[in-house]
Amino acid sequence: MIRTFAAGGLTAGALVLCLGTAAAHSIETAPNQAVKASLDIIETTIVTQKDAAIFTTRVRGEAGSEKPEATGKFAGSQVYAYVWPTSLNSGDIGFDKDRGIVALAVTFHPDFDDAAAGGRNRDVWHPHWVVLAEDKACGGGLKVIDIPEGAKPKVPPTWPNVPLLIDSPNYKTTFKGNAVDVAIPLSLLGGIVGSSYDGVTAGLKVNGNLHAPLLCVDNVFKVASGNLSLPGKVIPPK
Fold this sequence. Notes:
Blueprint: H1 12-18, E1 26-28, E2 41-49, E3 52-59, E4 78-85, E5 101-108, E6 126-134, E7 142-144, E8 166-167, E9 172-176, E10 179-185, E11 196-197, E12 200-206, E13 215-223, E14 232-233
Antiparallel strand pairs: 1-2, 2-3, 3-10, 4-5, 4-12, 5-6, 6-7, 6-8, 7-13, 9-10, 11-14, 12-13
């Protein structure tokens, strides 16, 4: 049986049925002392301000202070992430339509680079779009969707040339105190207004054999809603 994304939560398959079911403007969450403070979500929001969408997660401790340890190799290495699962379509972010669950993730992974155009990003927190799907081989029940050898799917201009449905855009990302913020121009993300979202902190892991699934959600630290029901709602800018 596939593990749920969080205790008492939903599998990836069930998640699709819950998109857009509620309309809260933000998601507030009680602290959980069992979760490391820098990963213990207390509030998640996506708001529109003038010409930008601002993705924000606040935690109980100092955001970004907890990072995975370097292993010195790509295979088996770890990724920490602040994630906003959304009801966006994969076509909204430059991939083919209807490919899976679209999420924005701010990640740190000290053992490899996946910036656009061969850039370096292993030593900084940085944003990605990822398209997720259910996979029983992954500890957390979800994977970043693999691109099979020889396949040529539609990809955005900042795709980092790796065999995954992952994008490496250069969005402004800020860590300050207990919050992490990502600002995305609405001109690049028109579909965000009216969409639903949730918040997650998670650990991902590169397959030790470097085979599909290449990148798994391995460990979920906390889900803002508690059940991945995507209760947040992005309202139009005023």
